[in-house]
Amino acid sequence: MFSWKTQVINIFTAVASFEALFETVGGVEQYYASKEVTPVVRLCFALAAFHTAIHAVLLLRIRTFLTMPQLRAICLYKIIVNVVMPFFWFPEMSTAIMEVDQRITLTLRGVLIMTYLFGYLWAGKAEGFSAILTSEKEE
Amino acid sequence: MKTWYDAIGMTPYRAAFLHLLLIGIPLRFGILPTGWGRGWLFPESILQEPCSIFESVRECTEQEDFALRDFGVRYILQYELAWVVWFVMRTSTFALISFHKILLGASFATILFMAWLQNYFHPAPDRHEFDADIFANMVFFQLLGAALSMWTVLTHPKPPNEIMKWSIPANAIFFGSVRPAIHSRGA
Q1: What SS3 state is found at A49?
Q2: What is the pLDDT of residue B68?
Q3: Which end of chain B is more exposed for a tag (fewer CB within 10 A), N or C?
């Protein structure tokens, strides 16, 4: 339900960011329109990559300690956050400073929202299947 | 035997609350407020200057302000998700213990990462003296939270091995949907 595939996207993003930090040419500056990358920008870039990685780990492990109704609540919450946030501010949407392909970010955003929507619709609908998997008798 | 943990009325649920609170305190006064962009909702008179986390208060370039807010938004998104997860799980002690393990890992990883950052950005950028208090507070509060979580993990029972399955999804399905009664036993 709570798809690990979106976390693969998160992990790829974090790994690409970490790699960009260590490249001397064509590293962090390829993400920004003005090519001057100061130490502050590099610091923030590293911190953002780190928190993307932590976020992915938390969401990957979330299935081990949340029940299906709880996962459903989290999915609803994530849908609301992802739909409401663009009205305030989204970093990758400001074209003046970041140099990223808008089509790619829009696609990723769409995949995220659709995944959480499907998670919300389907969570808790697999009890019969899980009973087969665990082969436990109900009392 | 009554420990200090019980004496102050601590439970795994409250310990997770405290840990989340502790790791948020240094960021509240430094990096956290920089996550919100200025606009009609947060005018400049209310919101701090993102560059105020640096000792020599000066104007950042537009790109540096942007990078600071970018990190702030990512941090806020991760931090509030942890709060929602904490809020959602009230009943299950076993589940709270695994949440404490993730908190422990995140805290220690943050301390390691901060230590690495200090070496990586050494010497400090000349015009941007990073506020040393933020690093010191961060390590102190993360260690405090980690100690709390470690005590919780060590003193509370973990699920016995014979009811654990050898795969994460199987465990999730088993503990999540098939036998919810198992959660409330330890609480």
Answers
A1: helix
A2: 83
A3: N
Measuring CA to CA, which residue among B81, B35, B114 is closest to residue A10? Answer: B81
Cβ separation of A130 and B177 shorter than 8 Å? yes
Distance of alpha carbon A81 from alpha carbon B78, whole angstroms: 12
Higher-confidence residue: B82 or B47? B82
- Mean pLDDT, rounded, of chain B: 77
pLDDT, block means (10 residues), chain A with 139 residues: 70 90 86 83 87 86 78 88 80 78 85 86 65 57
All structural domains of chain A with their residue ranges: 4-134
**CA nearest to B69 within chain A:** A91
Q: Do A136 and B74 touch (CB under 8 A)?
A: no
> How far apart are the CA of B6 and the nearest CA of chain A, in angstroms?
24
How many Å apart are CA A46 and CA A25, to the nearest integer?
Answer: 17
Q: Nearest by CB to A41, which of B67, B78, B169?
A: B67
- Is A77 in CB contact (< 8 Å) with chain B? yes
- Verdict on whether the full-model pTM lies above 0.80: no
